[in-house]
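re: that chain from earlier
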Amino acid sequence: MKKKSSPAARMSVPNDLNWRKVPKQDLWLYARSFHTAAKTLAGTLELDPGPFTDSDACPVVFMYRHALELHLKALVLGDGGNFLATKPDALSVHKTHSASWLAQFVCQIIAAVKWEEEFKCESIENLADFRAFIEELNAVDPGSYVFRLPVGA
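^ sequence. v structure.
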């Protein structure tokens, strides 16, 4: 009798980081999707009348952080990368979870196109605010692991 393989054994995950062949210019779609999902999930926490725990908030914070990371990668790997004196290695950009490493390139892009005055969004009034936010995030979660799973797991 032939032994059936387990579902995990039947799954094949390609070694190619972009195995679905998503064009780099569409990376922002993933960033937007994670941002939308984070906002939706955060809204469910606000609707619950009871208190929520740190573990309730972790998926929300992780998804916001991941959305930021993907937005930064989209800028660096997309057309923004054309304004960098030296482009980072695409494989290194794909593999990293370091928001501060990615943000340094984004800051260079913003400076190169002279958008320092226009670079703002909710709670970010200028490039200095952006850098401060990234450094604060990096101090808490430098590798995108803190909110993903419990320490030591």
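The chain has one domain: 21-46+53-140.
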